[in-house]
Every structure is written in structure tokens, then in C-alpha cells.
Design a protein that fits this description.
Length: about 140
């Protein structure tokens, strides 16, 4: 008469293999979190930079973009009457190191019409983001 089923050793080996694979997956996913938060922050900041470009082209002013501040409120203000702008009613992104992994400040703005520098500060353990502001504004 043949016995059917698995031995205790076979079951323990399978459980050990599953545990090792689960550990590898958890480690890989924990490393993906900072990369995902960086991608979200870069996307938000690039969208703000594009809105700034549209605002300036449409004749508006940068709202709440003063040197060494974290901007808030609408990105663009004082759009001339009769101009339909995609920049109207778009707000500065809200990024906090505690929840988003990043915070940022406008380090230099000229006369409310030109953003010349923006600094992004990562939380501990997050990769850095560099924003270049000028004729081709971009964060990466």
C-alpha cells in the first residue's frame, strides 16, 4: 500500500521558499516608494513650470512667487481681460516632506513675472530633484 501526501520536510522546504520570495518582493517594493514619490513630485513641479510659461505668455503675473517662500494659491494672477488662459485658476502644488517626500521653495522671482530659481528639498532617504528654470524649464 502506497502512502499519499507530502512529507513534513517537503512542506517545510516549500514554506521556506515562499518566505524567501515574499521577503525579496517586500524589499523591492519598499525601494520603489521613494522613486514613485519622486516621479509624482517631478510631475507636479513640471506642470507648475508649464503653467508659469503659459501665464507669462498670456500676460499674467505669478501669484505668490516671492523669493525664499513656499508658494501657495493660484500660480497665475492678473490675466488681462478678454484673454482666455489655461493658466487661470491653477494652484501651486502642495508638497510636504512628511507626506510627499519633498518640499520646495521659490528661491528667486523677479517682479512677479519671472521665476528664475526653485529649490526642491527631499526628505531623508529620497533621491534629489533638480529644477532648471529658464527658456526650457524642467525638473528631473
Amino acid at each position: 500500500m502506497k502512502k499519499r501526501g507530502f512529507t513534513l520536510i517537503e512542506l517545510l522546504v516549500v514554506i521556506a521558499i515562499i518566505g524567501i520570495l515574499a521577503t525579496i518582493i517586500i524589499i523591492a517594493l519598499s525601494n520603489a516608494r521613494p522613486a514613485a514619490k519622486k516621479a509624482a513630485a517631478v510631475s507636479n513641479l513640471n506642470q507648475a513650470l508649464k503653467t508659469i510659461s503659459i501665464c507669462v505668455v498670456d500676460g499674467g503675473n505669478l501669484g505668490a512667487a516671492h523669493a525664499n517662500t513656499t508658494p501657495s494659491g493660484n500660480i497665475c494672477s492678473n490675466i488681462p481681460a478678454g484673454v482666455s488662459s489655461d493658466a487661470a485658476n491653477v494652484v501651486w502644488p502642495t508638497l510636504t516632506a512628511a507626506s510627499d517626500g519633498y518640499s520646495y521653495t521659490v528661491t528667486n522671482a523677479l517682479n512677479g513675472t519671472t521665476l528664475t530659481a526653485m529649490a526642491v528639498t527631499p526628505a531623508t532617504g529620497y533621491p534629489s530633484i533638480t529644477c532648471t528654470v529658464g527658456s526650457t524649464s524642467n525638473c528631473d
